[in-house]
Design a protein that fits this description.
This protein is of the alpha/beta class. The chain has a single domain, classed as NAD(P)-binding Rossmann-like Domain (Rossmann fold, 3-Layer(aba) Sandwich), CATH 3.40.50.720. Helices cover 41% and strands 16% of the residues. The strands form 4 sheets. A 7-stranded parallel β-sheet has the order 3-2-1-4-5-6-11, with helices on both faces. Strands 7-10 form a two-stranded parallel sheet. The protein has a two-stranded parallel ribbon with strand order 8-13. Strand 1, helix 1 and strand 2 form a beta-alpha-beta unit. The radius of gyration is 19 Å and the shape is globular.
Length: 352
């Protein structure tokens, strides 16, 4: 049983990946400073898996505190690195905060990887590295263009930093996973997306609007060159995404990588517009949504979805959940939060 460190383990994708890792025989510890998360999702992980996860409340931008985790856990075999700020709109407003947090945390983590000779490293990247691509679907060979947001630039820079790191540290094998749009919740409704502040991503905006937590939905633009004028995205169920991390880790452990780092797109391969997603939610749940069309939002890519052939062929990965499953599980999770009024209002979420 290999010990895997998950950074951002109290977060949305991190928590689902911990579940998948445990279900596939790995031992897991977490680092999460809980500045944008809470330990609530760890309770859900324990209910699903029967395993209590140790979380180190550490800011990865503090090298000494980060290094101390590795000194205490010298048997760490691999790292899956999620911890980062991720809101596109906020990154446009506060670019220096994003560059400092997302890049310094990665650099400190890689210093520890080098010092403690950690053999396997999986990086949470993003389709934002492609910018506004000339053609879609994008493959791993699609040229990257200027990012549309500081958040996107931190992912481009993160990939470059890891690329240079692997040249100097050939014994550490790395994979860069470029996500598209994670959404949905674990089918048990014991863990799911838990925005601490106003949600930035479409699906939690939809579910929070549907249940009355926020007054309505703003569709940012309906005049784009797409089939209905709204932006096109590739929504992937978070449990499908989580399993890809386990497969990526096993791929490295089994010494199957041909290049270092390896890159994989993680998306369904289907582009769905914002307006189509809203209508699909209404169809799946029977709940009518209140939405208005607003101005284009700075930082938004017009249209992007994945060619996922490489992940399917090489990792043996496949998506099991449909758009309807994504919206249905997200709604089930939102309703569960409503049952716990304190959690619904955020009053029991303790932040630093």
């Amino acid at each position: 049983m290999k010990k895997i460190l998950v950074t951002g383990g109290c977060g949305y994708i991190g928590s689902h990946t911990i579940v998948d890792l445990i279900e596939n025989g790995f031992d897991v510890i977490s680092i999460d400073d809980n500045s944008r998360s809470s330990t609530f999702l760890l309770e859900g992980i324990e209910k699903i898996t029967g395993k209590k996860i140790k979380n180190y409340k550490v800011d990865l931008c503090d090298f000494n505190d980060t290094n101390a985790v590795f000194e205490e856990n010298e048997d760490i075999a691999g790292i899956i690195h999620f911890a980062a700020y991720k809101a596109v709109g906020e990154s446009v407003e506060k670019p220096l905060m994003y560059f400092e947090n997302n890049l310094l945390s990665l650099i400190n983590l890689l210093k520890c990887v080098e010092a403690f000779k950690i053999p396997y490293f999986v990086f949470s990247s993003s389709c934002t590295v492609y910018g506004n691509p000339d053609s879609i679907p994008v493959t791993e060979l699609t040229p990257t263009k200027p990012a549309e947001s500081p958040y996107g630039y931190t992912k481009q820079m993160g990939e470059q930093i890891i690329g240079e790191f692997t040249k100097a540290n050939k014994d550490t094998k790395c994979i860069l996973l470029r996500y598209f749009n994670p959404a949905g919740a674990h089918p048990s409704a014991l863990i799911g997306e838990l925005p601490i502040d106003k949600p930035q991503n479409l699906v939690p905006v939809i579910t929070q609007s549907a249940i009355g937590k926020i007054p309505g939905i703003t569709v940012f633009g309906d005049k784009y060159p797409t089939r209905d004028g709204s932006c096109v995205r590739d929504f992937i169920h978070v449990s499908d995404l989580a399993h890809a991390h386990t497969l990526a880790l096993e791929f490295l452990i089994n010494n199957k990588n041909k290049t270092n780092p390896e890159i994989f797109n993680l998306g369904t391969g289907e582009g769905i517009t914002v307006l189509e997603t809203i209508k699909a939610f209404e169809r799946v749940t029977g709940v009518k949504l209140n939405y208005t069309v607003g101005a284009n939002r700075p930082g938004d890519v017009i249209a992007i979805y994945a060619n996922n052939d490489k992940a399917k062929t090489i990792l043996g990965w496949q998506t099991l959940y449909s758009l309807e499953d994504i919206l249905g599980t997200a709604w089930k999770w939102e309703q569960k939060l409503k049952d716990d009024e304190k959690l619904f209002t955020g009053k029991n979420i303790q932040l630093n």
